[in-house]
Amino acid sequence: MEKFNQKIILVIYHSQGGTVKKLAETFVQGASKIENIQIIFKPAKDVLLEDLLCCQGIAIGSPEYFGYMAGLIKDFFDRTYEKAEQITIGLPYMIFVCAGNDGRGAITQIERIVKGYHWKKVYEHFRVVGVPREEDFAHVEEMGQTLAAGVEAGIY
Predict the structure, then answer these.
(1) pTM for this predicted structure
(2) Which pLDDT tens digit goes with each residue over 29-59?
(3) Which parts of the chain register pLDDT below 70?
């Protein structure tokens, strides 16, 4: 299919040690299995308002720091909220978090912000506690494929 007919999934992440980046890359692998899907894959610090406004689905990957999402994930929200919140209502989203301890705090904080955008949660958020195992990567890959398939089929 021609590129202009493709639907776009935005995958943003922050990763200092590389673990969340590997999870995000795995998410992209899953999403890439679906035809007619274009992936915009960027660290949160590099995501532009235009990236958000042109996508039909978004995945957010963050480590948990001190019970909170990564600061650069919060920065993404700060930079886009004002101009995007009315335009992106209903945007399907997923969250995956990697934490040394728990991960729930980061998910809770992201969910609170996303409520302001009125995005649509389409998959149970995923937490990896400690070092990701093979089954964690398999789960994140399935998340990517699920989001892309739902966006491509127009069910989200």
Answers:
(1) 0.94
(2) 999 999 999 999 999 999 999 999 999 999 9
(3) 1-4
Give the chain as a 3 state SS string: CCHHHCEEEEEEECCCCCHHHHHHHHHHHHHCCCCCEEEEEEEHHHCCHHHHHHCCEEEEEEEEECCEECHHHHHHHHHHHHHHCCCCCCCEEEEEEEECCCCHHHHHHHHHHHHHHCCEECCCCEEEECCCCHHHHHHHHHHHHHHHHHHHHCCC
- Largest alpha-carbon pair distance within the chain? 45
CATH number reported for the structural domain that contains residue 75 in this entry: 3.40.50.360
pLDDT of residue 4: 58
Phi and psi of 17, rounded to 5°? -95, -10
The residue segments making up the domain with residue 126 are: 3-153
Nearest to 58 by CA among 76, 75, 71: 76
Residue 29 CA from chain centroid, whole number: 13
Structural domain total, the chain: 1
Identify the pLDDT of residue 3.
54
CA dist., res. 78 & res. 67, Å (int):
19
